[in-house]
């Protein structure tokens, strides 16, 4: 990894082009878990996955517990992963890196192992919330040592399961994690949420439910209560991963902030990811959005509107939306982003990080309890290097701002490999191509 700051390319005109984005890490890491839980020992193929840090951490975790994982080159820079479930998971050490999906989805699966599983991760991962997983597992009869990473999950291999109430207001992944392995618990798993705030990022829980059902698992989903019946997990033998729409939003933002036009090829017509919400958020800035056989095309308006948006359901979009909002504020528009207090527990405290980094280019950003207010202010040359805080989405937010702020350099563009392994090459290629400009 280079320790030289990365010079973000500046757009000298409207950015125009077509991009392909790699498979969604959220879909991939669920598919990998379901494949590893397979009841019949068949090999499952997860196709079109990104070779990203988060997916690599998940395959590493499953292999550490005894699953067999093979990797082959897939279409357009993706990988096809072949996973075979072990007869019984065994104990071992799991590196969660900074991946929420690994640190929240693997402990419930580790309870099926016949020996203890120790989970740890990056320094920041030790600060990310784990309360719902730890309390949830204990309530389901699983012995867990520790309250956050590093954690030890005592082996089962036959956890009792049952009903548990957790506070999932810090992360929807608490619910998803407990549900994903729940069919393998003796009584199944019922998770209820009780907390001062609601469960954020609910479309990610819906993704979990949909993928469990496609693996033949019986799931009831009510308001703040989910039930997974005990039974075999039979994931489809081939699971195609759809493109990562949160990653796609970064490329679409390049059109929005430069008066350009960008198409993301292969925009899926399923509802696994909240694609329509991504579209609505970009439209709120005044962008025109069109879905055609070529993909999803976003065209910038002449002048950006400010937005007042509740991003609870799509909280991982916040850095991208904040970057666009800072550009809109340059042109006099005020924006307010709400409903995302919990992202202080994401890869970094994203509200503090966005306020600090956007501030280095002159943006007037105020943190609120649950979001950000971005007031009109001109953007100017950076006062220092943009800090990514090892957060992929802080790095991509810096790249978006860099399109219109010459001289912006990012301390660690390699953070983008968490979900977008080729970003550092693909982004300059898009910015400088200016197809048809
Ligand atoms: O389950 C998932 O794949 C995810 C759920 C969400 O987490 P939170 O509920 O913690 O926001 C989202 O922000 C994260 O990027 C991915
Ligand atoms: C919050 C995110 O990731 P994680 O899965 O690590 O929580 C994210 O990708 O924006």
From TrEMBL:
Keyword set includes Transferase: yes
GO cellular component, one term: cytoplasm
Pfam families listed in its UniProt record: EPSP_synthase (PF00275)
PROSITE patterns: EPSP_SYNTHASE_2
Residues bound to 3-phosphoshikimate: 25-26, 30, 171-173, 201, 316, 346
InterPro entries per the UniProt record, alphabetical: Enolpyruvate_Tfrase_dom, Enolpyruvate_Tfrase_sf, EPSP_synthase, EPSP_synthase_CS, RNA3'P_cycl/enolpyr_Trfase_a/b
Binding-site positions, phosphoenolpyruvate: 25, 100, 128, 173, 350, 393, 418
Positions annotated as active site in the UniProt record: 316
Domain Enolpyruvate transferase as annotated: residue spans: 12-426
Record key words, sorted: Amino-acid biosynthesis, Aromatic amino acid biosynthesis, Cytoplasm, Transferase
Annotated signal peptide: none
Annotated TM spans: none
Renumbered residue ranges of the record's region Disordered: 1-22
Catalytic activity, reaction form: 3-phosphoshikimate + phosphoenolpyruvate = 5-O-(1-carboxyvinyl)-3-phosphoshikimate + phosphate
Enzyme Commission code: 2.5.1.19
Location in or out of the cell: Cytoplasm
Gene Ontology annotations of biological process type: amino acid biosynthetic process; aromatic amino acid family biosynthetic process; chorismate biosynthetic process
GO molecular function annotation: 3-phosphoshikimate 1-carboxyvinyltransferase activity
KW Transferase (keyword) present: yes
HAMAP family, sorted: EPSP_synth
Family (UniProt): Belongs to the EPSP synthase family.
Function: Catalyzes the transfer of the enolpyruvyl moiety of phosphoenolpyruvate (PEP) to the 5-hydroxyl of shikimate-3-phosphate (S3P) to produce enolpyruvyl shikimate-3-phosphate and inorganic phosphate.
Subunit structure: Monomer.
Protein name listed in UniProt: 3-phosphoshikimate 1-carboxyvinyltransferase
Organism from which the protein derives: Actinomycetospora cinnamomea
């Amino acid at each position: 990894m280079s320790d030289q700051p990365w010079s973000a390319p500046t757009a000298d005109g409207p950015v125009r082009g077509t991009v392909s984005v790699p498979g969604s890490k959220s879909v991939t890491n669920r598919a990998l878990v379901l494949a590893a839980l397979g009841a019949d020992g068949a090999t499952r193929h997860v196709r079109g996955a990104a070779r990203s840090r988060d997916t690599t951490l998940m395959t590493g975790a499953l292999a550490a517990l005894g699953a067999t994982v093979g990797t082959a080159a897939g279409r357009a820079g993706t990988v096809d992963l072949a996973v075979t479930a072990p007869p019984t998971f065994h104990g071992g050490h799991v590196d969660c890196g900074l991946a929420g999906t690994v640190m929240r989805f693997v402990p419930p699966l580790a309870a099926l192992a016949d020996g203890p599983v120790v989970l740890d991760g990056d320094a920041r991962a030790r600060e990310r919330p784990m309360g719902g997983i730890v309390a949830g597992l204990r309530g389901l009869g699983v012995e867990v040592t520790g309250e956050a990473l590093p954690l030890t999950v005592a082996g089962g291999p036959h956890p009792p399961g049952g009903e548990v109430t957790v506070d999932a207001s810090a992360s929807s992944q608490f619910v998803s994690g407990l549900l994903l392995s729940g069919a393998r618990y003796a009584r199944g798993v019922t998770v209820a949420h009780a907390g001062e705030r609601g469960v954020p990022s609910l479309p990610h829980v819906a993704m979990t439910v949909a993928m469990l059902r496609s693996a033949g698992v019986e799931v009831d989903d009510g308001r703040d209560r989910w039930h997974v019946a005990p039974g075999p997990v039979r994931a489809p033998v081939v699971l195609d991963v759809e493109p990562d729409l949160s990653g796609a939003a970064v490329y679409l933002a390049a059109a929005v902030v430069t008066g350009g036009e960008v198409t993301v090829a292969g925009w899926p017509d399923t509802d696994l990811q909240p694609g329509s919400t991504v579209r609505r958020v970009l439209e709120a800035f005044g962008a025109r959005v069109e879905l055609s056989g070529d993909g999803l095309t976003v065209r910038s308006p002449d002048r950006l509107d400010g937005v007042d948006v509740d991003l609870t359901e799509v909280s991982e979009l916040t850095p991208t939306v904040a970057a666009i909002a800072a550009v809109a504020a340059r042109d006099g528009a005020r924006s307010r982003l709400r409903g995302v207090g919990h992202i202080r527990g994401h890869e970094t405290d994203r509200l503090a990080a966005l306020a600090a980094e956007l501030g280095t280019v002159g943006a007037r950003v105020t943190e609120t309890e649950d979001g950000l207010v971005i007031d009109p202010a001109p953007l100017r040359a950076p006062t220092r290097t943009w800090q990514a805080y090892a957060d992929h989405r802080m790095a991509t937010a810096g790249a978006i701002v860099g399109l219109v702020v010459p001289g912006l350099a990012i301390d660690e563009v390699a953070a983008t490999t968490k979900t977008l392994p080729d970003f550092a090459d693909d982004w300059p290629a898009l910015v400088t191509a200016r197809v048809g400009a």
